[in-house]
Write a structure and sequence with these properties.
This protein is of the alpha+beta class. It has 13 helices and 40 strands. α2 runs antiparallel to α4, α4 runs antiparallel to α13 and α5 packs antiparallel against α6. The longest helix has 24 residues. The protein starts with a strand and ends with a helix. About 0% of the residues have low confidence.
Length: about 700
């Protein structure tokens, strides 16, 4: 225990001898004649008690008054105790508002409510300023975070303002991340100014230096995948307030996908992946609504498994899946949800639903741009495309210039690129050409062969290219930060690249297939068909732009000339009938909205033309977007025992670790109780 205002203790202690001296003082009496000597005995006793140098007699009133004075003196000194991890000064309160914080405990309270309650208790325990306090009042700021972070209250010592800020925090459906919140907190660290004393002329400020922000309190369940890269200041103290009960049960949808058949686009395939933290296997009821038409399925889900390896506990949630195939050529809004008695003890409801936007069945329009390749063009003409044309490089550039290239879903560029090196917006499969979108050719190798490839990629899922021999292959270097990845590697470098750009999606074979044995292998036509199908289905469905996660920004391009554009957000049931906001498209038709903070269907409506996958909505055109959580980490809601940060490990300290406990109110109450006792004793002596 320590004293917040030790100076007050010594100043107030001076009242103790003053009280005792009052009992030594003589009374000033005036002469008074009396009718009897019977009162002399009491008068002599009174005179003896007021003798200044005579020993005090035992007096219960003096003892009680000393106790009252001692209690008030100690209360004025503000005794308090602090946990070992608590330090004085500034406090940063980080409150996790992500989807997992909506999990409920056995009393039905959400983790966010518990975190807010504990954070308010921390605020109430902060030291306040006093007239004779050794230090000033402690300040705190409040930051709410999920995958992003917002300052809810800047540094202040106003406890009422801090309480209001904490109570105003609302949950989101986004996954969680700590890095942005800590960076935001460190941006508010105090600035230390350093003066330039060179030349013997102090006073000019040389630079500024940020010092530690103070004590960082993290109120979270620990589902923070980016924690290992979080850097805190050396001077900062980090306290992890672990929120949530141990071993909660949660069943969740963690994967959701829709595909249309290549040979028969009317065949719709749905895949649903489930995750469970239940200790025993379960049979989960699955409802699938396609444009409101319901289908029911039963899905077995395995149990949570736990083991101890290298002295550490390892846990693996159970899993289950369902693959559904139906004939459905029309466009569809798919609503998938978990229902039934298996969810009786489910702690988190937000991950029990998912949505998909499925475009209508249609065949692809494909154009091949080549200086001449009859073998490949004749074979592509036999495939079941809605439209197939062969263009020369000059015809392709003319189509790109007049905008008619948008009539095709996919372009196959055979050993050719536009003269300026830039690809117009669209989807491309390039053979023997490397688009200048983050990839650079640095040399040439005389021979090469494939050594590894992504077997899960849609374009390579059904092929084996191990036996392909390449006579001549460019050596390519690429920048991963520019949206370029290698999906097939040769012994001299990347062999097949996947490129993502704001307006372009491309799969690029860096070498000329005619200078290899690949055209004579059955894997070549399978690869070409699969790559075109993968690119074309994304173009038709708008999969890259219309499948979102909370925390993402909705970013899409509407047909040119779109006017009166509005977006409707989902209601609590996930349907696009919530609040409506007006959007203003850019000159190229691009609209931006977000970040997305709720799960469900978002609907964008406008006046103007429709593109692939759009639907009529009265007198307007409409486009739907689906926001899903689909996060295995966020749905595994077991609270983490510690936070593994970049430079330190922070163990959980419990819900109220590091708070300050003040005892002065108890001393005040004790003093009041003694005052009542002293009043009772005094009145009893007077009347007896």
């Amino acid at each position: 225990m320590n004293l917040a205002a030790p100076t007050m203790l010594w100043l107030a202690a001076g009242f103790v001898p003053a009280l005792v001296i009052l009992y030594f003082l003589k009374l000033r009496r005036r002469p008074q004649e009396i009718s009897s000597t019977l009162l002399w005995k009491r008068a002599i006793e009174d005179l003896q008690a007021n003798a200044p140098f005579q020993k005090l007699r035992r007096n219960i009133l003096l003892l009680l008054q000393l106790l009252i004075l001692a209690g008030l003196i100690v209360a004025l000194a503000q005794p308090e105790s602090r946990d070992e991890t608590s330090i004085s000064g500034n406090h940063v309160i980080l409150i996790d508002r992500s989807a997992s914080m909506l999990a409920r405990d056995s009393q039905g309270r959400s983790r966010l409510d518990r975190a807010k309650r504990d954070a308010i208790a921390l605020v109430e325990s902060l030291k306040e300023s006093g007239l004779l306090s050794a230090d000033g009042a402690e300040q705190a700021m409040v930051i709410a975070f999920d995958v992003s972070a917002d300052v809810v209250s800047t540094f202040t010592s106003d406890k009422a303002a801090l309480r209001r800020a904490i109570e105003s925090i609302q949950p989101t459906h986004a996954p969680s991340g700590l890095d942005e919140a800590v960076k935001l907190a460190r941006a508010h660290a105090p600035i230390k100014r350093i003066e330039d004393t060179r030349g013997g002329q102090p006073g000019a400020i040389e630079t500024t230096l940020q010092v530690g922000v103070g004590t960082i309190h993290v109120f979270s369940d620990g589902a923070l995948p980016d924690a290992p890269r979080v850097l805190t200041g050396v001077e900062d103290e980090v306290i992890y307030h672990r929120v949530g009960e141990d071993d909660p049960v949660n069943l969740a949808i963690t994967a959701l996908r829709a595909d249309r058949g290549y040979e028969d686009p009317a065949l719709l395939s749905l895949f649903v992946g489930l995750q469970s933290t239940a200790p025993s296997p379960r049979e989960v009821d699955l409802e699938v609504r396609i444009n409101g038409e319901m289908r029911a399925y039963s899905v077995p889900v395995t149990a949570l498994s736990q083991s101890s390896e290298s002295g550490e506990d390892a846990r693996a949630p159970g899993s289950g899946s369902a693959s559904i195939q139906i004939e459905y050529p029309e466009s569809a809004l798919v609503d998938v949800r978990l229902v039934g008695s298996a969810l009786a003890d489910d702690a988190l409801a937000v991950d029990n639903r998912g949505w998909l936007v499925v475009p209508p069945a249609r065949r692809l329009a494909v154009a091949m741009v080549t200086p001449g390749n009859p073998f490949l063009s004749d074979w592509l003409a036999t495939l079941r495309f809605s439209r197939f044309e062969v263009l020369t490089p000059s015809e392709f550039e003319d189509a790109a210039a007049d905008g008619s290239s948008s009539e095709f879903d996919v372009f196959l560029l055979d050993r050719t690129l536009p003269a300026n090196g830039e690809l117009p917006p669209g989807r491309y499969l390039t053979l023997g050409a490397v688009p200048a979108l983050g990839a650079v050719v640095t040399g040439t190798s005389q021979s090469a062969r494939f050594v590894d490839w992504s077997r899960s990629h849609p374009a390579l899922r059904s092929v084996n290219i191990e036996s392909v021999l390449i006579a001549e292959s460019p050596i390519v270097e690429f920048d991963k930060d520019a949206g370029v990845t290698s999906i097939a590697d040769t012994n001299v470098g990347p062999g097949i690249l996947e490129i993502f750009a704001p307006e372009v999606r491309a799969i690029a074979v860096v070498f000329d297939p005619l200078k290899s044995t690949w055209p004579f292998d059955v894997s070549f036509p399978v690869f070409v068909a699969s790559a075109i199908n993968s690119l074309g289905n994304e173009a038709a469905a708008g999969a890259l732009a219309r499948q979102l996660r909370p925390g993402d920004v909705l970013n899409d391009r509407l047909p040119s000339g779109a006017t009166e554009t509005r977006i409707t957000v989902p209601d609590t049931a996930g349907q696009p009938i919530g609040a409506t906001t007006t959007l203003t498209p850019n000159a190229d038709g691009r609209v931006v909205f977000g970040p997305i903070d709720r799960l469900g269907l978002y609907k964008v409506r406008w006046r103007g033309d429709m593109a692939a996958g759009d639907v009529p909505d009265g007198s307007r055109s409409a486009r739907f977007f689906a926001a899903n959580l689909l996060d295995t980490r966020e749905s595994d809601i077991q609270p983490a025992p510690s936070l593994e940060l970049a430079a330190r490990t922070v163990r959980a300290e419990g819900g109220r670790a590091g708070v300050i406990r003040r005892y002065w109110p108890w001393f005040v109450l004790a003093a009041l109780a003694v005052i009542l006792l002293e009043w009772w004793v005094y009145n009893r002596k007077v009347h007896v």
